[in-house]
């Protein structure tokens, strides 16, 4: 039985590869993708997640935006590494679907509550989402 996961990322090149690998694995069931600012601005990382999922034909995976900036400092993007879009280089399609209207935390909570198995949260971004809503995560008994 595949392990249900939620990816929380800031899609630049590294997280684009993570998405592709997770979705190509029979051992994982990607329930949702949440994004935050990090490798690029929050609007660009959200767009990049949608672009990668569109490339893979995975419009069935809900995507929600999360943290707009780090908790303890100003946002410093890595455009010198990932380019102006956050995914410069490869030719990717424009998003073929829109993000959900829920916040990242709301989407995570919905998916965790609906899943009969324990859900593994896979944060690969700057983790800005986690402390800000820690009280909600605890009440959801996330593990």
Would you mind describing this structure in some detail?
With 143 residues, the protein is α/β, with parallel strands linked by helices. 36% of the residues lie in helices and 15% in strands. The protein has six helices and four strands; from the N terminus they run E-H-E-H-E-H-H-E-H-H. Strands 3-2-1-4 form a four-stranded parallel sheet, with helices on both faces. Strand 2 (28-35), helix 2 and strand 3 (63-65) form a beta-alpha-beta unit. 34% of the residues are buried. The model has no long low-confidence stretch (mean pLDDT 84).
Number of helices: 6
Helices and strands, in order, run as EHEHEHHEHH
Beta fraction of the residues? Answer: 15-25%
Radius of gyration: 14 Å
- Helix/strand/pairing category: alpha/beta
- What percent of residues adopt helix (DSSP H or I)? 25-40%
**Mean pLDDT, all residues:** 84
Biggest pleated sheet: 4 strands, parallel
Count of beta strands: 4
Key phrases:
6 helices; 36% helix; alpha/beta; single chain
Summary of the model, kept short:
The protein has helices at 13-24, 42-55, 79-82, 104-114, 129-132, 134-139, and strands spanning 3-9, 28-35, 63-65, 120-123.
């Amino acid at each position: 039985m595949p392990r249900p996961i939620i990816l929380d990322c800031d899609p630049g090149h590294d997280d684009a590869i993570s998405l592709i690998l997770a979705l190509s694995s029979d051992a994982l069931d990607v329930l949702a993708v949440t994004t935050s600012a990090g490798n690029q601005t929050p609007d660009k990382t959200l767009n990049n997640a949608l672009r990668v999922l569109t490339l893979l034909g995975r419009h069935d995976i809900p995507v929600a935006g999360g943290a707009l900036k780090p908790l303890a400092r100003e946002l410093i993007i890595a455009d010198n590494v990932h380019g102006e879009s956050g995914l410069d280089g490869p030719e990717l399609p424009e998003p073929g679907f829109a993000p959900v209207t829920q916040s990242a935390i709301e989407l995570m909570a919905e998916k965790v509550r609906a899943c009969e198995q324990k859900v593994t949260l896979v944060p690969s971004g700057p983790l800005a989402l986690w402390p800000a809503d820690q009280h909600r995560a605890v009440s959801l008994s996330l593990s």
